[in-house]
Design brief:
Helix content: 40-55%
Order of helices and strands: EHEHHHHEEH
Strand content: 5-15%
Radius of gyration: 14 Å
């Protein structure tokens, strides 16, 4: 299980506490220091079944500075993936990825439904 997060993110801290409280073993990766690759993003996008737009951190400074709220719909999927891979701060966090499961952003009910068997 791979847990991508930003150390100062309070939502990531809640997700980490959720995982720890349930005894899940995971590898934690700082999304700024080791940003997702295009190949990872392609795989996670496919597995998650989510629209690619859901992978963007729409409340982040980088998203706003680039004016992506107005530009994103005009970019094809390849350009969006390249953009996401260029800066970890553009990527919504946390991301939890394991075989056959990718969760983007933390919602306790969604994570519990997906992980608590």
């Amino acid at each position: 299980m791979l847990f991508l997060c930003h150390p100062a993110c309070t939502t990531c801290a809640k997700a980490r506490a959720f995982l720890n409280a349930r005894g899940f073993k995971y590898t934690e990766r700082d999304i700024r220091q080791e940003r997702p690759t295009e190949a990872e993003l392609v795989r996670w996008h496919h597995v998650s079944g989510l629209p690619l737009k859901r992978f963007f951190n729409t409340s982040g400074n980088a998203y706003r500075e680039l004016g992506l709220s107005k530009k994103l719909d005009g970019l094809d999927e390849a350009a969006q993936l390249k953009l996401l891979a260029s800066d970890g701060m553009l990527v919504r966090r946390p991301i939890l990825a394991q075989d056959g499961l990718v969760l983007v952003g933390f919602n306790e009910k969604t994570w519990a439904a997906a992980l608590d068997n």
